[in-house]
Amino acid sequence: MKDTYESPLSSRYADQKMKYLFSPDMKFRTWRKLWIALAESEKELGLPITQEQIDEMKAHQDDINYEVAQRREKEVRHDVMSHVYAFGEQCPKARPIIHLGATSCYVGDNTDIIVMTEALKLVQNKLVGVIRVLSRFAEEYKDLPTLAFTHFQPAQPTTVGKRATLWMQELLMDLEDVEYLLSKAKLLGSKGTTGTQASFLELFDGDHEKVKQLDHKIAEKMGYTCCFPVSGQTYSRKLDSQILNVLSGIAQSAAKFSNDIRLLQHLKEVEEPFEKNQIGSSAMAYKRNPMRSERIASLARYVMVDALNPAITSATQWFERTLDDSANKRISVPEAFLAVDAILNLYLNVADGLVVYPKVIHQRLMKELPFMATENIMMDAVKRGADRQELHERIRVHSMAASKVVKEQGGENDLLDRIAADPIFGVTLEELHHIIDPKKYVGRAPQQTEEFLQETVAKVLEKYNAVEVETAEINV
Fold first, then answer.
1. Could you give the 3-state DSSP secondary structure of residue 50?
2. Which of 270, 275, 429, 444 is the most core-located residue (most Cβ within 10 A)?
3. Is the pTM of this model over 0.85?
4. For the chain, how big is the Rg over CA atoms in Å?
5. What's the per-residue H, E or C state across 373-404?
6. At how many degrees (to 10) do helices 104-140 and 445-452 cross?
């Protein structure tokens, strides 16, 4: 429909798998699974529920009669009870025991947790995919010297591969956070109206042990090991805040990468992929704008700000529950996941297609390296008997003069020529060029990169060896 607003997160950016997790179909199918798990658990614990009733529910688990539910909701203005009614229409024998003892949050909150857990698994796999691609890039360029920057001012050289390890390390931190969230995933369970399980205690004639077992059985049937030990009517909204904080962390890592690529593309050293027929600008046909990296930055900004939503919601819940979380939650949580899904798709696409220009990198490095090599040049002259203080003064004078040529006259850096012409240094231009071999100034960058890839990254990738990440189509 062209006359109705549609979120670009859904229409342009996120993958179908992530979009499905937050779809009505996923939600309502999960509701029915939870109702079946509840009925099965109650039957196993002695309530008068028959296998015939459960089989009837299972037979209609996936063929949801949406039209019936929609008509009923217009009448009763309650989504859960509308779907209880619709399920009961399909399962007349099971109708009396569907949703027995439960509140709306039994299906609503447990489903939200299940959806977020499955969404985190998708995020986890995509993080692995990006790390895998970056590891190959770092290995390929671990020895290529490049000018490093602090404050975006020239600093001691590093290598292109070493710079990529900085991007990877942040993603590994994010992956650890995702793994931690998944390791402690637990359901709300069946806690009742205010979390006291009073309705279930009544159903089981005061048998506290059976009520406790009910939570465990439901969790097990839904693929979880446990439930939150205590709750109000809802699971603590702090969980949403924790999850979106981790998504925000991923967005931060991706934004840092995208900013580096945008700056490198300006320097013409490294570029993001650019298709043969892609148009960079409607006015300037020669331009190759870093559109993918800019989109990463743009979406990342949205996620970082969006993470404030569940933080404020968590902080302002009253006693056992309020409903001011609902409208906010159904927007902020899905959109954070959809945006991160899009970010990781873009990150993977850019990282997998980075174009490196070694000659430009070398040219820029050599314009700055003579200044950085002066300490080595001076030490070599001292070894030959020159006075360090006098050498330092001569280096200062020559450096200022060479800098003036570069900045004021737009000329080339002639510092090496000046030093070679000064007899106090006792060195030829050819010898100076040998002294300023870029590989002598990158420190342990190649070794650090290799060690990081072998000792850290390889172990992580081995753990996820079976994970296959599909190449996402990017809508620029």
1. coil
2. 270
3. yes
4. 31
5. CHHHHHHHHHHCCCCHHHHHHHHHHHHHHHHH
6. 140
